[in-house]
Structure formats: C-alpha cells, structure tokens
Specification:
The protein is an all-alpha fold. It contains seven helices and no strands.
C-alpha cells in the first residue's frame, strides 16, 4: 500500500486495502470510535467500582448506570460493524442497536430531572412528603430499562 501525496490516490489505495478485509474507511472510523467509547465507559465503571464510597452519592450512581448503558450501546455498535452473519442474527443486532441507545438517552434524561429537582426544588422536597431517593432510583430503573422495550416490540 502506497500513499500518494496528492490527488487522493493514497486514500483510494487505503480504501482498496480495507475493502479486501471487509472494512472500508468509514468502518474503520466506526470501529475506532466504538473502541474509544468502550474504553471510556469502562474507565468510569471501573473507577466507581474500585472506590465504592463514591457509589453512595446519587450523582455517581446515575453516572454509573449511564456508563453501563453507553458501554452496552458501544459494544452493540461494535458487534454490528464487525459481524458479517446471517439475517436472523442481523435482526437481533438491529433490536439491540435500537434498545441500548434509547436506554442511554433515558438515563441522560433522568440525570437532567434529578439535577433539576436537586437544584430548584431542594427546599420544597425537604419540607413535604415526596419520593425518597430509593424510590426515585427504582422509578428511574423502570423508566430506563423497561420503557425502551416498547420501542423494539
């Protein structure tokens, strides 16, 4: 493989080399992006697991679950890019590729709701009978893991 300094011939020969292995330039970028995302999510997850005191904080628990969903999203995308299989497996991968990004989106929404409630209504919540933090997290888990099933049915 030779790289030409101008005229795009270098990129074209790179594309030809990648096409012989099954991946084009876009596929290579997708694999690199997925691997970087998996590494980032694993770094956050492992950091929070190694220092369990951090998991006592609500914000860190939300970040943990967002990272878990992002890890599964990236892993499903990576599997989809690298897998060349039959139609049935492709259908299952398509379902997973829809489910986990929705889960990740909903965890991001839950973080936004939690920050809003924590910042703007902190005084009102302390003086009224509202949901406890455990009840809020149970509600978040139901919303984030069960509701997206409706998008893939």
């Amino acid at each position: 493989m030779t790289f030409a300094p101008a005229g795009g011939r270098g990129l074209q020969s790179l594309n030809n080399a990648m096409n012989s292995t099954g991946l084009d330039t876009l596929g290579l970028v997708a694999v690199g992006s997925c691997i970087a995302s998996v590494c980032g999510a694993l770094a956050i997850i492992l950091t929070l697991l190694v220092f369990p005191k951090q998991m006592r904080k609500a914000g860190h628990r939300l970040l943990f679950w967002l990272s878990v969903s992002d890890l599964l999203t990236s892993a499903s995308y990576l599997t989809n890019v690298l897998y060349f299989g039959n139609d049935d497996t492709c259908k299952y991968l398509a379902v997973v590729d829809i489910y986990f990004p929705v889960v990740s989106f909903l965890w991001t929404d839950c973080i936004g709701v939690f920050v809003y409630v924590s910042v703007t209504r902190l005084r009102r919540i302390r003086h009224t009978k509202g949901l406890t933090e455990i009840q809020i997290f149970i509600l978040f888990h139901v919303i984030c893991w069960v509701v997206p099933v409706s998008t893939v049915l």
